[in-house]
Specification:
iron, 907 residues, six-stranded mixed β-sheet, 4 domains, Immunoglobulin-like, Neuraminidase, Cytochrome c, transport, heme
Length: 907
């Protein structure tokens, strides 16, 4: 990926300073400058699990094109609600390279041109980034790769990281802006300005790129693409673009590239242009030092910048509001004078451009890892990745029901990728900052990476997700719309229990029902067809007869707007109670050690295992090994074992067994033959469900199959699901219900999953129910990054690919749910520590909360392995909380944790 240097990740995740907005009615909103209520906005997720999304563009018909770093161009179509790949550009993807930028031509309606900024998989001799345009087939929705026109190349080294930039924007005059990263490795500059002037160190010297007037790196470029007649009519252009007037350097100077509009940037990853003022905005991801240094200069800052005209913005000689770095000699570690922002000089031997640079321009907004004294808590603290979104003009967008309100007129949307927020920046007529406030503080954003207003005034956002260089489940395309009128009330119906034997007493609740406009609402409960109703918000009702009932809550405001919520109640059959008892530690296993277990089952109607009324053979216990410890996968694995048991039991209880069996033909075909015939047929579930309900003949012979109207359609559907599953069924490896299981060492770490299930026989007209219990024993050695809860910590990947967790401040913690410490003698941990970067400290182990009972601690002052002796604990499952302590850490992160191992006293 592009802009993010790995050291940045070692800093803490943000602490959001949330401002609660005053709630006013819509009529008042139209007359005041009060922020609109957050509940007037709806954020709808359109696509998820994207693979490193980078930039988006919204077409006039609300279709959305967006890019992914590994080279795919995708299209979301609101008519179908689906996303598809419409082009794939071959790209080089090591370090942070790939497909970074996307935009459409201002005349896309007629010329169908798309612009991409990407890293072609070229040879070592040709490692330039490409700005190209392509034709787009708007009928077939296909990027026509063969139509590529290469406008501009930006040479980069590709030997190591970092920073690619890559955003594409347009102004109202048809000028194209392209951001480029500095292509400098920051890791040997201790987080200060990289100005290593030693021979062969060009890749560590930002004076070779960002502050080099003859380099296109570390810049925002501005060109005017040409069409048709490509004879350049402005100096310094090519046959595909001209140089607009007003760029930083005039054409004709061999030591200054005329394409440069802004220089002295580190990694301007996302940019935007105010279409009315022409002001350019960008977020610049800054260096990583956490404290000021008398030898090197200021700590690191991220910047949000505003350029009202072409200019030099200082990096790597200046940062933030022109705080100067010190002219440091990397050869002998001596310090010279601070650089002069009024007369900056680039006399590095790596500089191929002008020595005398334009005066440095201060940042518009800037903030360090720690609290910002200049801008306060609204910009947050911790890890940082500043980015720039659009400036909203209400008059630019057609009237619509989803358009953002006048309150946001002429305001700038600035956001931070790591801190997961969007801020609204208010400016005066000259563009000077007057206020910053949070946009939708109660809405979750997972690393927002791009955004654009559609022509109807609604906002589309692209989110990258929390893990670097990975396909994240949270990586998403979303649509944010605004509702200016009276809102429909919210109905929320819940029940104390939804399944049970009769009589079944149920307590209903309307908790969560409300009206955003403050209108009084009326409640009406219907407990089922033919049953009494209630106008109480939280009534109780006893179902005397078996059956399936739909209870409906209707809420109505005084304007007549209503909404409903329902809950299904199944009466007449209780869910079987299934348990798996583990003797010994109930969280971990140790390789080659026995695990003693026993299954118990009881059912109100069928009896129990203990009484022998439920035969052993009707209870299933499986023990499987699942790589990793993903709770979602564990749930899915459990479902795979028990998901078709209801259908199987329904078949056993029906007349189907008179004519069919699983494997042998009888009067009717074997179920496995049916499964094989229909497994690849579209809509096979619906086809067979209809056939079972209505009957049929002629497919398997002369004997007709009668209909089965006595079964509910949903019951038949469960039966058909079971039959179709037989096509891929593997024999279930059933284990004894009481025994000892010996774990084995595996090639990859994972969890042993004990799953017990029983499907009862139903009761009367109530179908069978399945009870189950899953116990997961995880490896005694776990990765720190699998924590369930945390505060002021950051995950980051080391160059070798290992992901560790960093405690950023005194009191940071990570916590793990459902930990059994019985029989544990000590907790061993692999810690990371870097002198000068980390402060070290104490790692404490607590139960249940960060201030709960302390069971041990250890000092961390170097990298390596440490051990926390564990005091005797009870046999209950606890939340284990590991707390980072160092009151003297100041702004330095403490240390990191790679893995945690729980050692048994019995080993």
């Amino acid at each position: 990926m592009r802009q993010f240097s790995f050291l940045k990740i070692t800093c803490s995740i943000l602490l959001l300073a949330v401002t609660f907005l005053t709630l006013l009615s819509f009529s008042v909103l139209a007359q005041t400058n009060t922020p609109p209520e957050e509940n007037r906005f709806t954020k709808k997720t359109l696509a998820t699990k994207l693979d490193e999304p980078t930039e988006l563009v919204v077409l006039d018909d609300q279709r959305v094109l967006f890019t992914e770093r590994k080279g795919k161009l995708k299209l979301y179509n609101p008519k179908t609600g689906k996303t598809k790949v419409v082009g794939e550009v071959p790209v080089y993807t090591k370090q942070e390279y790939g497909l970074m930028g996307l935009n459409i031509d201002p005349n896309f309606k007629t010329n169908k041109l798309i612009y991409l900024y990407y890293s072609p998989p070229s040879s070592e001799a040709d490692t330039a980034q490409h700005l190209s345009r392509f034709k787009y087939d708007d009928v077939k929705d296909t990027l026509m790769l063969g139509t590529e026109e290469l406008l501009l190349t930006v040479p980069v080294k590709r030997t190591d990281c970092c920073h690619t930039g890559g955003s594409i924007a347009w102004d109202s005059k048809g000028n194209l802006y392209l951001s480029t990263g500095d292509d400098v490795n920051p890791f040997q500059s201790n987080g200060y300005g990289p100005i290593d002037e030693r021979p062969g160190r060009q890749g560590w010297d930002g004076q070779h790129s960002s502050s080099n007037t003859n380099s296109l790196r570390g810049k925002v470029l501005r060109i005017k693409p040409r069409y048709g007649d490509r004879r350049a009519n402005m100096p310094g252009g090519t046959n595909l673009y001209d140089i607009p007037e007003g760029n930083l350097f005039p054409a004709g100077n061999p030591k200054a590239r005329p394409e440069i509009y802004v220089m002295g940037t580190r990694n301007p990853y996302r940019i935007s242009v105010d279409q009315h003022t022409g002001y350019l905005y960008w977020g610049d991801v800054g260096p990583d030092a956490s404290v000021d240094s008398p030898k090197r200069g200021p700590r690191g800052y991220d910047e949000v910048n505003q350029a009202r005209k072409a200019g030099y913005f200082g990096y790597p000689l200046f940062i933030a509001d022109n705080k100067p770095y010190i002219d440091f000699n990397f050869a002998d570690s001596t310090s010279g004078k601070p650089f002069d922002a009024a007369k900056p000089i680039n006399n590095s031997p790596h500089n191929t451009g002008l020595e005398d640079l334009p005066p440095a321009q201060p940042a518009f907004i800037f903030y360090p890892y720690a609290d910002s004294p200049e801008f306060g808590p609204i910009v947050g603290k911790g890890g940082r990745n500043a980015m720039a979104g659009p400036v909203y003009y209400a008059a630019d967008f057609k009237d619509s029901k989803v358009k953002f309100p006048q309150y946001y007129d002429k305001k700038f949307f600035a956001y931070d990728w790591i801190r997961d927020y969007i801020n609204i920046v208010t400016m005066n007529e000259q563009g000077d900052l007057t206020n910053i406030e949070r946009f939708l503080p109660g809405t979750k954003f997972s690393h927002p990476i791009d955004m654009q207003f559609a022509n109807n005034g609604s906002l589309y956002t692209l989110e990258y997700g929390p893990i670097w260089f990975a396909q994240n489940d949270e990586a998403s395309l979303s649509h944010i719309t605004y509702n200016a009128g009276n809102r429909v009330p919210v109905a929320a119906a819940t029940a104390s229990n939804t399944i049970g034997a009769s009589p079944l007493k149920v307590a209903f609740s309307s908790k969560g029902s409300m009206d955003y406009d403050g209108d009084p609402i009326k409640y009406e409960w219907s407990f089922g067809k033919g049953l009494p109703k209630s106008t109480s918000p939280n009534p109780g009702f006893t179902y005397a007869k078996p059956g399936e009932y739909t209870a409906v809550l209707k809420v109505t405001d005084n304007a007549g707007n209503s909404n409903t919520s329902e809950v299904v109640i199944k009466v007449g059959n209780a869910v079987p109670q299934v348990d798996v008892a583990i003797k010994g530690n109930k969280t971990f296993y140790w390789n080659d050690k026995p695990v003693n277990y026993e299954v118990s089952v009881s059912d109100k109607e069928d009896g129990s295992l203990a009484s022998k009324k439920i035969p052993d053979e009707e209870v299933t216990l499986t023990i499987n090994y699942l790589e990793g410890f993903d709770k979602t996968q564990l749930a899915q694995g459990h479902q795979a074992n028990t998901g078709f048991e209801t259908g199987k039991r329904l078949i056993e209880l029906s007349d189907c067994k008179a004519c069919h069996s699983n494997d042998k033909k009888s009067i009717g075909p074997a179920y496995r033959e049916v499964a094989k015939k229909y497994k690849s047929e579209r809509n096979s579930l619906k086809t067979l469900t209809d056939k079972v309900l209505k009957g049929g003949s002629g497919v398997w012979g002369e004997q007709a199959m009668p209909g089965h109207p006595q079964h509910k359609p949903e019951e038949v559907e469960e039966m058909v699901k079971y039959i179709l599953a037989l096509a891929n069924e593997k024999a279930v490896d059933k284990k004894p219900l009481k025994s000892t299981y010996v774990t084995e060492a595996k090639k990859k770490d994972g969890s042993y999953i004990f799953t017990a299930s029983y499907t009862d026989k139903g009761n009367g007209n109530m179908g069978p129910l399945t009870g189950s219990k899953t116990i997961a024993l995880r490896p005694a050695k776990i990765s720190a990054n699998t924590y369930d809860d945390g505060k002021d910590v950051a995950k980051f990947k080391l160059p070798e690919g290992t992901e560790v967790v960093l405690g950023s401040k005194n009191g940071s913690y990570i916590a793990f749910d459902d930990i059994d410490l019985s029989g544990i003698s000590n907790i061993e941990l692999a810690t990371g520590f870097s002198e000068g970067v980390n402060s070290g400290g104490i790692l404490e182990a607590h139960l249940d909360t960060p201030t709960g009972a302390k069971i041990g601690e250890v000092k961390v002052a170097s990298a390596g392995t440490v051990s926390i002796p564990v005091k005797a604990a009870d046999t209950r499952l606890h939340k284990l909380v590991l707390v980072f302590r160092n009151p003297e850490a100041n702004a330095k992160p403490l240390f990191s944790i790679d893995w945690i191992q729980f050692n048994s006293a019995l080993q």
